Amino acid sequence: MKCLVTGAxxxxxxxxxxxxxxxxxxxxxxxxxxxxxxxxxxxFSENPNFLFSKIDITNREQIAALEGNVDWLFHLAALADxxxxxxxxxxxxxxxxxxxxxxxxxxxxxxxxxxxxxASSSCYGLPKVFPTPETSLINPExxxxxxxxxxxxxxxxxxxxxxxxxxxxxxxxxxxxxxRTNGTYGAVFGVFLxxxxxxxxxxxVGDGDQTRDFTFVTDVANAFYTAAQKxxxxxxxxxxxxxxxxxxxxxxxxxxxxxxxxxxxxEPECTFADTAEIKKDLDWTPKVSFEEGVSxxxxxxxxxxxxxxxxxxxxKEATTSWFNYLKD
Length: 328
Prior knowledge:
Blueprint: E1 2-6, H1 11-22, E2 26-31, E3 50-54, H2 60-64, E4 72-75, H3 82-87, H4 89-110, E5 114-120, H5 143-162, E6 166-171, E7 174-175, H6 188-197, E8 202-205, E9 211-212, E10 215-216, H7 217-229, E11 235-239, E12 245-246, H8 247-254, E13 258-261, H9 276-282, H10 290-298, H11 312-318, H12 320-325
Parallel strand pairs: 1-2, 1-4, 2-3, 4-5, 5-6, 6-11, 7-10, 8-13
Antiparallel strand pairs: 9-12
Helix pairs in contact: 1-7, 4-5
């Protein structure tokens, strides 16, 4: 198949490109390199079936100029993180909503066979049902979550109105090699791994008993590939690990000292995906256990050697908007 992957130089995008190439497909990866890194493409950049272009999905002219004849379009490009989305919601809307619209219009015009969208489980907000099914209440807590959900709504609507074959995957707490090291204070793995390298204590939010559905990145890439091959149309699926694990359990596996920082508003006590639907429809199940995944990430920990090292004082400063705008 001829595949177009947006966000190709990013964390999940680079793993998806790697998988598609390993399966013998042709891949055109695009990325504006604001968060993506060319180094993420190093293992396959010389593959004759791979082409990379520096393109911004918010630039309608650049998207319109893309070569057509695309079979599968995987849309993973997005702005992430909570605090920047609170401080600059317009940029998040431009990228996560308008950028998605630009790609849907390209797919409609060019007759793309399958459009696959990386949705976010943050759309559930503070869920009350665990494991959380796709039918749960949608209640975004911050602009990142809202704009990702608006993008998902566009994908569903274009599928309905324009007969575009779409699938959206709501991703839960993805971790693994190549997760982002630059940018603002964010995902727990990047924070903890940089702290571990510098022999700093892990900054644990609250009491550390909160749990997350940590899902290994190769399982997520495989979910996208599996969804592309199946005939199901217009569906939305959760993608999770099949379990949920406390931050304290993660600390046990990483081994290190701990310092506790205040609990933050707008964060769920638990994220835990109900994956019954994707198992039933697509016969997809995760393969990498949490313990195995943490072991894999520790084997390549040097990747985070240049990541910012966060301490309680710098976290407090970086998350001021979080406390000012989000309320329990």
